[in-house]
Design brief:
By secondary structure, the protein is of the alpha+beta class. It has helices spanning about 10, 40-50, 80-90, 90-100, 105-115, 130-150, 185-195, 240, 245, 265-270, 310-320, 365-380, 385-390, 400-420, and strands at about 5, 30-35, 55, 75, 120-125, 155, 170-180, 200, 205-210, 220, 225-235, 250-260, 275-280, 285-290, 295-300, 330-340, 345-350, 355-360. The chain contains 14 helices and 18 strands.
Length: about 425
């Protein structure tokens, strides 16, 4: 499939990867994984490390979806703050979630273990759009330090120039445990590690459905029935194509990114080289690439039809933050769908022999790798940590097949309007 949204910097600078076609040989395994993004790849790798035989099936190519085209920001935690989690779920569950999602950086561990070359850098800054936002950030930083011993750096408005050459923000929180990377190269590195562990990867092979008797457990694809003891559905935005009932739990939101030409003043724009995301509901997020381009994501569209000119769509958001590069050449513009749940927490679970994980809601670059590994743990018989994430509440969007997206769009537009009104 030719993808008009993937004229991306990542695709242009990806590590060498030859296609892995369907080979039709021995279509049986212990674990069939559907989806070649971070969740599916990390699950496949972790299963193989535990001695399972694994086949991973990807409709397009490794990292085709959000895993290979996101903003590259590594943000510890979930979309809810740690204090919100404790307020909602209590102390014990908050402790377990914090240990998994803040302290447990499985992306960094995988990069180090497998020598993945993906331009990993440290440091993430959440920038406050309003003084009220900054006040909330300071309270959360105090909570993290006092409750968990987790240290972040509170950056006053007067000190923001240490991180970002923009007058827009009212302070921020710098988290040295966060960072940024080249997501497609990370996906390819996971795929190479998975193959080295024995995983068979089939690209350009579409899965139609997950099967049960009389065909037997497994998945039905274009050219085969893959018999398996377990199935992992890691298709995220496309999960409704295979399991329509799970598709009711998310709606796709379109995000768009640009990459400028290499900038001579790149280090002046972001002196600490941290990734930045601001506190607006429809947020801007940006960082420097290894070759000193500004990679900038801004704006959302609730229609699945992309703008005619992605660079022209995103440039005004970039110019608002960095007017000094308003006329900088833009070499790449791309986009893709983010699967968002009602409460912005991931939807993870198990139904018999089928495991699933989706709905990471734009906060998945770290937690997807963790989710894949926890699925492998549960499959091997140790489900305690998997159950921590699987116990997160989730409910389907109202409106059924035809009204789910319009009703969700109305809600999202309301919060976007609140951004504009301050």
């Amino acid at each position: 499939m030719t993808d008009p949204l993937n004229h991306s910097y990542y695709a242009a600078t990806a590590r060498a990867w030859r296609p892995r076609p369907f080979d039709g040989d021995n279509c049986s395994c212990d674990v069939a994984v559907i989806g070649g993004g971070f969740t599916g790849l990390s699950a496949a790798l972790a299963c193989a490390e535990r001695g399972f035989s694994v086949i991973l099936i990807e409709r397009e190519h490794i990292g085709f979806g959000a895993s290979g085209r996101n903003g590259g920001q590594l943000i510890p935690g979930l979309r809810w703050t740690a204090s919100e989690l404790e307020s909602e779920f209590g102390r014990d569950r908050a402790d377990a979630l914090f240990d998994l999602c803040w302290r447990n950086n499985r992306v960094k561990a995988r990069i180090e273990k497998h020598g993945v070359d993906c331009d990993l850098k440290t440091g993430h800054l959440e920038a406050a759009w309003t003084p009220k936002d900054f006040g909330a950030m300071r309270r959360e930083a105090d909570y993290l330090a006092n409750r968990f011993g987790y240290r972040t750096d509170v950056v006053a408005k007067a000190d923001m120039a240490q991180h970002i050459a923009s007058p827009l923000y009212h302070g921020g929180i710098h988290d040295p445990q966060g960072g940024h990377f080249h997501p497609l190269n990370y996906a390819i590195g996971l795929a190479q590690a998975a193959e080295a562990a024995g995983v068979r990867i089939w690209e350009r092979e579409r899965v139609h459905r997950i099967t049960d008797y009389p065909e037997g457990p497994g998945v039905m694809s274009d050219r085969a029935h893959i018999a398996a003891r377990f199935v992992i559905d890691a298709t995220d935005s496309w999960i409704g194509h295979i399991e329509p009932d799970l598709g009711r739990y998310t709606v796709p939101i379109m995000n768009y990114n640009i990459a400028t030409a290499p900038l001579v003043n790149a280090d002046d724009l972001l002196p600490s080289d941290a990734a930045v995301a601001d506190s607006r509901f429809v947020l801007n997020y940006f960082r420097l690439s290894a070759d000193k381009r500004l990679i900038f994501g801004g704006g959302e569209r609730y229609s699945q039809t992309p703008p005619r000119d992605i660079a022209a769509f995103v440039r005004p958001f970039m110019t608002e933050v960095f007017p000094q590069i308003a006329k900088a050449p833009i070499d790449y513009g791309w986009g893709g769908a983010v699967a968002v749940t009602m409460n912005r927490l991931p939807h993870i679970g198990r139904r018999g022999s089928v495991f699933f994980a989706h709905g990471f809601s734009g906060h998945g670059a770290l937690v997807t790798t963790l989710a894949g590994e926890l699925i492998a743990e549960a499959m091997a018989g140790t489900a305690e940590r998997f159950d921590v994430l699987a116990s997160l509440p989730s409910r389907p969007f109202p409106g059924g097949k035809w009204l789910r997206q319009p009703l969700a769009t109305l809600g999202l537009l309301y919060y976007a309007m609140k951004d504009r009104l301050g």
